[in-house]
Amino acid sequence: MLSNQLFNIMLRHIKTVISILKEREHPLKIIWAYVLLRTGLNRYVKIKQNGYKINLSQSNLAITLFGNKNYGHEDEGFLRKTLKPNDTYIDVGANIGTLVLTGAICVGNEGKVIGIEAHPNTFNVLQANVNLNSFNNIKLINSAVGNEKGTLHFSDAKSDDSNKILLNSDEGVKVAVNTLDMLLKEIKHIDLLKIDVEGFEKQVFEGATQTLNKTSLIYFESFERNFTNYNYHTGDLIKLLNDSGFFVYKMINLQQLQLLDINYKSEICENLVATKHASSLENTYNFEII
Hints:
4-stranded mixed β-sheet; 2 domains; about 25% strand; alpha/beta; about 290 residues; single chain; Rossmann fold
């Protein structure tokens, strides 16, 4: 007979799985993904996306895409709308590479894509996904990005999509930190800079003075709850970008943007857009400003 302690542990695991499945659109596919992962058969499974493919890995994003191939297509849609052949695309917080691979398609063989990912395990998955495809215009960098060079600790949760920098902590995984100015000093111009670093965005921008000077368009994740983990607010980030000459916009959809000021708060997790040249949003990228 199972002990009460073991029974309670199993019950907690079951409740966790049920809560996860309730949030998924195709729970039976998610269950099948976990079966494949548990048996090791996932090594034979490739998830086909729009122009590329990725491995079925332990990544939350990979499992989600196995169940719903259309997940996250708003981000890919933004890249396909704004990137063109020969462009340079930088992806900070590249995760397992879906946007790196989308970017590689958009910019073509003569373009350049640089994917930067901090967590070593996630970076290995990213590298494997890039190797799975035939693009020759992608460079990958395994580094955290911040406002100064050094080392920090990164959380090491199995739910890899939520891993983040741990300030004043020696737990998790020790990672190297560089500034964007250091990592991208050889790049002359950036057409699109995407940043998704779970609340560490302000520190990334603080170490990117030179990078911002040569960037046309920024697409970054914004979430007040994540920002407060690092003692700042959405308005602080908007002010930093305003001071660097950028206007910041909320995405209504892939056709419309709304100008923001420093009083705005991202109460939900969303992506904001920034550019120095407001007219380019309408004339170059075909957005309507409302």
